[in-house]
Amino acid sequence: MKQIKLKGKDIFNGTQFLGSENVLIADQTGLILDIVPTAKAGDDVQEVDGILCPGFINTHCHLELSHMKGVIPEHTGLPAFLTQVMQSRNLAANNPLVIDKAEQSMWEEGISAVGDICNTTDTLVKKQQDRMYYHSFIECMGVADAAASQRYEYSIGVLNSFREISGPFNQCSIVPHAPYSVSRSLFHLLAATPNNTPVTIHNQETAAENELYQEKTGAFIDFYHHFKMDASAFQPSQTNSLEAYLPFFQQQKIILVHNTFTSEADVKFAQQQPELLYWCLCPNANLYIENRLPDIPMLRKLNCNITLGTDSLASNHQLSIWEEISTVRRHFPEIPLEEVLQWATSNGAKALGIQDNYGTFKVGTRPGIVLINQHSKRII
Ligand SMILES: [Zn+2]
């Protein structure tokens, strides 16, 4: 098969920059064959204008909400945002053309693997295409403690549908939605599910979540009343939410998503627990909903494993990991590009457990090849 030899301004191999005098060699299917010094690359080297990078890993998306692009205004805060999602998510849902279009844009801008939240089987057909890798996180929620087993059984039904397509391009697990939407009994059921990895959860996306756990007051009480949810069994832990729910889990791998209101004390507590933690940042969604960013300098200082996600088109203008990287760099220019690219590639792959096949230019893998200049664009 014909070899493709690519020389860019630099090569980022998933871990580090290799310098401009290197050539990436792949076959036409994207199989990585070698990286060699320019002097040893021989003929037919194509010069490309930008940095060569492995395909991005989007560790938090909701492909099934793609029809909600532009429906909800920006800066409402999370409780009001969720109210609108719940009231309008079923309008025009499960439109295969909208899901196709959203996936196509992820593909073109260079995303190779996605951790995708599912409440329904709306994305099942798309995911059988075996083009991008999906870890489908089947999301379970239920505020009323008495309904926990009923909610769990419903989500296990959805999980079983996704298990039927398990294979090299599809894996799945059942996960809690968020600390404010999952009862104690439901946390116990989810944490006890065997062979269920990784787990993910929306963590501390709004100040109201910590207020609920501290004092059982605030915007989530109004939210429960609005939807006639029975939160009478909820007991405030008088701690932040993370301290209250993390001990339900044992030695699982957990991807904590958003972390917009996570404090240094929260992280230090979490790091003493037995779980292997990844901290997924979705900066554009945080700006869209809460107009605030997580304390990224603090997460870096405490050596957190950081990954990046796009969240959904309900809370973002596009599904582009490069746009997330650009937002991080705009707000925190002191963070080296090399480090943010690690979050977007090899760290994301480790979080999803696919580091043997994705996130680096390892010989013998097909991680996708992306060209970065002002934007990012898939080459293969
Ligand atoms: Zn989300």
TrEMBL record:
Pfam families: Amidohydro_1. Keywords: Hydrolase. PANTHER family: AMIDOHYDROLASE-RELATED DOMAIN-CONTAINING PROTEIN, AMINOHYDROLASE SSNA-RELATED. The keyword Protease does not apply. Gene3D superfamilies: Metal-dependent hydrolases. SUPFAM superfamilies: Metallo-dependent hydrolases. It comes from Chitinophaga terrae. InterPro entries: Amidohydro-rel (IPR006680), Metal_Hydrolase (IPR032466), MTA/SAH_deaminase (IPR050287). This is Cytosine/adenosine deaminase. The keyword Magnesium does not apply. Residues 51-373 form the Amidohydrolase-related domain. GO terms for molecular function: hydrolase activity.
